[in-house]
């Protein structure tokens, strides 16, 4: 009985607090929803689909994939150019606001838009760097045009990780880095960013504070870079921030006890706010890497993950829904809302994240 009374008191206090700030429960739920990017299954959208309802509820963005990860013979979102264009048009039509329609299109092993579906084939980053600047400009010009014509406005690229560890299985051996030298990485990633910008596609630098020195893959579990990370891995971020050339940054599920003794970067106030915001001066949108990856999901439940990520300085929460059991927008919104009521997350943090997101939306 006492517990029920306490919950009621918290709810009434919360509603009164928000009313004094001019925000209703629905207002706050929409602000939380705007901070979420979700993956979903489907080649088209209609009013009965969950993703349709999510967008109506204020979902900030979607992430698209070609194949269903649980059955590679099945399509998840992308069959061909015409189908993708129609899908993205349908998605955008549902939303009252501009919707972030995102994809991983780096080139090489990481490209969801493939040549057998009618899209341009993009070489891996290391091969682009070996062929020079003119080749890079032409390559990323074609990639950017594909995205624009398909209705995609966010590309989770370029990778600005340095190829420090030659045995790194997630970045280096897959050719996803432009090289070990920060100047080379800055040169080619700048070309990538510029070509995306010409087509009004938002670029996303990844994976902060650097994944190129790691020994393990954060898709599979905990990644400790304490002994391998080098401060020069921050150089690309310093360059892009100083020259005001960065739209969005993706934070990585890597742990470095010299930067934060307790949390991986995605959940770290020390890294995402003190280092990235205060020291490096980044004022844009910070998005998490997929929060369902095992480096996070093995160690933290949904409430812990959302609370820590938001409080660390993350503005957008990515749930790719590549697993058999998807996370729903309602689960995320309800969890964050309850944490606001209990003052584990401040409403001001949510408002600030929405301001950053709105500012970025004005660019597309």
From TrEMBL:
Swiss-Prot/TrEMBL catalytic activity: Hydrolysis of terminal non-reducing N-acetyl-D-hexosamine residues in N-acetyl-beta-D-hexosaminides
Entry's EC annotation: 3.2.1.52
Enzyme class at the top of the EC tree: hydrolase
GO molecular function: beta-N-acetylhexosaminidase activity
InterPro entries: GH, Glyco_hydro_3_N, Glyco_hydro_3_N_sf, NagZ_Beta-hexosaminidase
Entry-linked SUPFAM superfamilies: (Trans)glycosidases
Swiss-Prot/TrEMBL keywords: Glycosidase, Hydrolase
GO biological process: carbohydrate metabolic process; peptidoglycan turnover
Name of the protein: beta-N-acetylhexosaminidase
Source organism of the structure: Arcobacter aquimarinus
